[in-house]
Design a protein that fits this description.
This protein is α/β, with parallel strands linked by helices. The chain has one domain (3-88, 96-106, 124-208): P-loop containing nucleotide triphosphate hydrolases (Rossmann fold). 29% of the residues lie in helices and 28% in strands. It has five helices and nine strands. The strands form two sheets. Strands 1-3-4-2-7-8-9 form a seven-stranded mixed beta sheet, sandwiched between helices. The chain has a two-stranded antiparallel sheet with strand order 5-6. A hairpin with an 8-residue loop joins strand 3 and strand 4. The model is unreliable at 88-97 and 112-121 (pLDDT under 50).
Length: 213
């Protein structure tokens, strides 16, 4: 994927500044320190998201915009959104409440009322979600709970195993089966460090944003 430009757009504690539901976008969800910011930088081919080894640093919704060399599907730009990581054990109850509010701010916008002529109908927009999990720790309860919640919201969700470069060859060979057994779905394994799996990830992101008939 050729990236023409990449920029940080905004940081928000509510739905102010978020892309509209009909715009091409994907949101990254995952445990603290799973590598969301690093993956966004890898997709952008430059450092636009601040990374940290200290979990829990991202506590607001960060929005980025990438302009693409126009794809065959006609997508010329896409928003990447980084939600705060869940599972930060040192977070207070107030922080947990704030995370829930942020989650509602984003996912709550995907059912809107669109008026046609003299009556109003409900026009749903489906959220495109990348659920990031650590390839070294598949099947954690918090990740499974997150996937269940995303499914309950009707999100279009793909499970992404990060940090695959840290696995030995034998571990990597077992990872696909372990992910499917744990989550009941296949997924992608990627490395922001080496670039492994990034082409497949871009193809998935574009496919998720092709308008449905």
């Amino acid at each position: 994927m050729k990236i023409v430009s990449a920029e940080f757009v905004t940081t928000t504690c509510d739905n102010t500044g978020l892309p509209k539901p009909g715009e091409p976008q994907v949101v990254f969800v995952g445990r603290s320190n799973v590598g969301k910011s690093s993956l966004i930088n890898a997709l952008a081919c430059r450092r636009i998201a601040r990374t940290s080894r200290i979990p829990g640093k991202t506590r607001l919704i960060n929005v980025y915009k990438l302009r693409l060399a126009q794809t065959r599907q006609g997508i010329s730009s896409i928003h990447l959104l980084d939600l705060p990581g869940y599972g930060f054990s040192r977070g207070s109850r107030t922080q947990a409440t704030s995370f829930a509010e942020l989650t509602d701010s984003y996912f709550g916008q995907f059912t809107v009322n669109t008026k046609f002529q003299s009556h109003s109908v409900e026009q749903p927009y489906v959220a495109n979600v990348m659920l990031l999990i650590d390839s070294r720790h598949l099947g954690l309860a918090s990740d499974l709970d997150a996937l269940d919640w995303l499914h309950s919201q009707g999100c279009r969700t793909v499970v992404i195993g990060t940090k695959v470069d840290t696995l030995s060859r034998a571990q990597r060979n077992r990872a696909d089966q372990a992910l499917e057994e744990s989550f009941g779905t296949s997924g992608l394994f990627v490395s922001a460090k080496t670039g492994k799996g990034m082409n497949e990830l871009w193809k998935t992101i574009i496919a998720m944003n092709i308008p449905q008939p």
